[in-house]
Specification:
This protein has 2 domains: about 10-40; about 70-155, Sandwich (Immunoglobulin-like). It is of the alpha+beta class. The mean pLDDT is about 90. The protein has 3 helices and 8 strands; from the N terminus they run αααββββββββ. The longest helix is centred in the first third of the chain and has 29 residues, at about 10-40.
């Protein structure tokens, strides 16, 4: 099928090709921008300069935490309570206090403050259950002067 009249390529043909090409490019760009804005909940840090000033302190804190030798695992129980299993050399850590928050990854739900109660098997379980969905759980575990921070996604 010949789309050219009399076999000639005219300015109208070139105009049609350019309009179609740039129309597709713009449609894809607008769609990608809409999806990006709709799925990103905000900034990672509010001020990168201030965050950079604390970087060495954060590294030292992470190194100190690593030297504690704690093995900490987070999970969800069947009824969606956060469960902390903290161990040192295979034994459950006693006298462990834990507090934290559950944050929705896209900030589409309010943060949930988490408090924990000890269980008979040495683990800690949150008092509040989490609603269905993905949650970023950020916890601070304290045992005497030692502090262990963990951030993990649970579903």
């Amino acid at each position: 099928m010949n789309i050219l009249k009399n076999g000639k390529f005219t300015g109208w043909h070139m105009t049609t090709i350019l309009v179609a090409f740039f129309g597709i490019v713009m449609a894809v760009n607008f769609n990608m921008a809409r999806m990006a804005v709709g799925t990103f909940g905000g900034t990672v840090v509010d001020n990168s300069y201030v965050a950079s000033q604390n970087y060495n302190r954060w590294l030292a804190s992470a190194d100190k935490q690593g030297k504690l030798g704690w093995n900490v695992k987070l999970s969800l129980s069947a009824d969606r309570h956060v469960v902390i299993d903290a161990r040192l050399n295979g034994s459950a850590l006693d006298d462990l206090n834990a507090v934290g928050d559950a944050l929705h990854p896209l900030a589409r739900a309010d943060a949930i403050a988490l408090a924990f109660v000890p269980q008979s098997d040495g683990r800690l379980q949150s008092k509040a259950a989490l609603p269905a969905g993905r949650w970023d759980v950020q916890l601070s575990l304290r045992r005497g002067p030692d502090i262990y921070r963990i951030s993990e996604e649970v579903q």
